[in-house]
Amino acid sequence: MQVVMATSPAKPDQPNEDFVGAVPNAVVLLDGAGLAGTTSTCLHGVAWYTRRLGGALLAQLAADDGRELTAILGQAIAEVADAHRDTCDIGDPSSPSATVTILRVDDDRADHLVLADSVLVLDHAGNAPEVITDGRVDAVGSRYRAAMDAAPNGSPEHDRALREYIETMRVHRNRPGGFWVAADDPGVAAEALTGSRPVADIRGAVLLSDGASRIVDQFALADWPEVLALIAAEGPGEVIRRVRAAEAGDPQGRRWPRAKAYDDATLAWCTRFPNRQAPDGSGFTPEANMIER
Length: 293
Prior knowledge:
- The chain is an alpha+beta fold.
- 32% of the residues lie in helices and 23% in strands.
- It is built from eight helices and ten strands.
- The chain has a five-stranded antiparallel β-sheet with strand order 1-10-9-6-7. A five-stranded antiparallel β-sheet has the order 2-3-4-5-8, with helices on one face.
């Protein structure tokens, strides 16, 4: 499988709290959750958490032992929890958490797992793209974001409303009727959206953090077929470039109300799946689906 990645921190002087990585048959993308200025019981921070969890996931996926993705995620969460439970109150809702998106190719099947609001787009040849995301975060958040959306980004009113929004959302984190993210409890892996598709039906796939998917779901600058075409023509970095241009043109969130004026943005574009046959029945050549610069 060929994977082309692009990532960009929200601000150059801040750590990128997204994570993306790949092994020969699988890709992992995480989007960390946390907020500067709110109280946290973790000494390490969100970027540390996403990198440790992403690394643990890749190590297990590299074993290629056929385990269910939920089992792999549960073990990875447990490993990272053990790494800082002696120094941090990992059960507190303020501790770092992350979305998790995994795509794994196993023989003639492509398995996926999506936990929380990152996005997986499957490019089905000849059919509309299949968009997979966990809408429970937005379903809960929509009830509490009115004050935040009404205030300009960067204003004291917005900062205060954002802190209140985050604190309120923490009450619903990893609880029935709320939403589910990777944090300290391995059991949340069972709440992830999972599925499997025949490799022969998939031409490619894109994994996006919500800072990148906002090109469609917040800014409406393109639809998903247009995004897939843009990535194929110019690479995943072009999506981030257009997102950054939109953010810069609306820094206060007047046109597009949002929690963060700028957000970490990450994509992984996957093509040339193993065992997928070309239309003439032959295997793909090494040059197939390469980006031309």
